[in-house]
Amino acid sequence: MREEKTFGSTTLNKILFYIDNQSYVERGKPISDFKYKKWEHGFIPKQLMQYKSEMKEAKILEEISVPYFGLLQSKPVSKITPNIDNFTSNDISIIDSVISEFKGVNASMASDRHHQLLCWKIARHGEDLPFYAYLITKSDEYTDEELQWVEDSIKRYEGKSIHNN
What average pLDDT does the chain have? Predict the structure, then answer.
């Protein structure tokens, strides 16, 4: 993705969100240990800023600013070859699949896609998003009553496994 003109920090946030959620859908667990919080422009991995700071301090990550349609785009650039030894073949398959879906997708397009998710629409600003909330499919055809049911269902499941026996 490094060579992609459209790839920047915003798109990275979206890619990480979709990778973890796709893994959760397929295997019942995310790939990373990130927890996602709803902010103004999307679900952001809460720990990412700390990790980026640590990687910059260790000189293994650089964030560069490049002109993009009259604005400056922040691009994370790895200074080392990634170590993928801790990823399973399933992890890598999910990662590759999600990344390929985002090729040529700019931050605005990624945000638009993100904001169509029903879990985006019902989550509150600053709220942590449980992974099972992603299972709720996107639709613009839900009634207020259905949306209330979804919100109540999420509240009931908070702190519980959806894989109870």
Answer: 84
CA dihedral 37→38→41→42, nearest 10 degrees, is 70
- Establish if 4 belongs to a structural domain: no
Residue 163 has pLDDT above 50, yes or no: no
Residue 1: predicted pLDDT? 54
Tokens of 48: 């990412």
164, part of any domain: no
Share of the chain above pLDDT 70, in %: 86
d(CA 36, CA 148): 22
The token pair that represents 34 in the structure block: 């990130």
Task: Round to whole Å and give the CA distance between 150 and 132.
Answer: 11
